[in-house]
Amino acid sequence: MDPVPRRATRRRNAERLAPYVLVAPAVLVVVVLRLYPLVLGVNFSFTGDGDSDGTAVGLDNYVTLMGDPLFVGALRNVGLLVALLPVAVAIPGLLATFIYLRVPGHRIFRSVYFFPAVLSPVIVGAIFTLLLAFDGPLNALLGSVGLGPVDWLGDPDVAIFMVVGVHVWATFGMALVVFLAGFATLDTSLLDAARIDGAALPRIIWHVIVPGLSRTIQFVFVTTMIGMLTSMFGLLYVMTSGGPGGATYLPEYYIWIQQGQLNRPALASAAATVLFLVMVVVGLLQVSVLRRSGRED
């Protein structure tokens, strides 16, 4: 056999295998550090705690969760987070739009907006706990203009909104960077045509920028949702510790309480499994709705 075709065949085979070889380490890390622990956690959720440790108990842990007012309240708060998600995405999206359109001072705003993202959640929580205290500076400012003090972190109807608001403030810088990267793929000729036609800024945003950034918006929606459901523990722990009366409980805080304080790892695994399923379902629904609206536009 001619050695030249043989070398060409080996080269083609190597080129076909190259992508798989390059991806293999990342896939291995995901399987070993993500998927395998996930499977173990789901399996562990069907076992018991305490005297029944390691014993199969079927769906008992899930029945216990559904009968626990704290966990039910945590799921209710998840619904609130999903309802507030468009606001959490719209804020960095609008700010990125203004920066992209080069409003005066846009370079300074780019740095200022990203700064909170580098702060530790514990530091952010400590700062806002002082600001929002009943005798803190915010209530002092309200008192100076004749408005009564508000128990920002002690009122069950207000506390969860404060924690979510602080989380959005502390994390929207990352979404802002993603939006700015998405603007690099936007067709500038469409913006120029809209300006020439005299379109107002709201119409430019709705009819040009939003359709052009549909994939970026989908990505930010999903990542922001995941961040809300899995990255608020530090703020909750410092600002409210789940209170008042469990009003600011979220599944991740409930999981920590069951695992870290009450030593009920199987129940915590069941709660983690429910949280994972909620994220998957909500994420798929969001992507489906956004894709459908993108096709309609």
From TrEMBL:
Family matches, as Gene3D superfamilies: MetI-like
Transmembrane feature ranges: 17-36, 78-101, 113-134, 158-186, 219-239, 266-285
SUPFAM superfamilies: MetI-like
Entry GO CC: plasma membrane
Pfam families cross-referenced by the UniProt entry: BPD_transp_1 (PF00528)
InterPro entries per UniProt: ABC_transporter_permease, MetI-like, MetI-like_sf
Family label: Belongs to the binding-protein-dependent transport system permease family.
Full protein name: Sugar ABC transporter permease
Gene source species: Actinophytocola xinjiangensis
Taxonomic lineage of the native organism: Bacteria, Bacillati, Actinomycetota, Actinomycetes, Pseudonocardiales
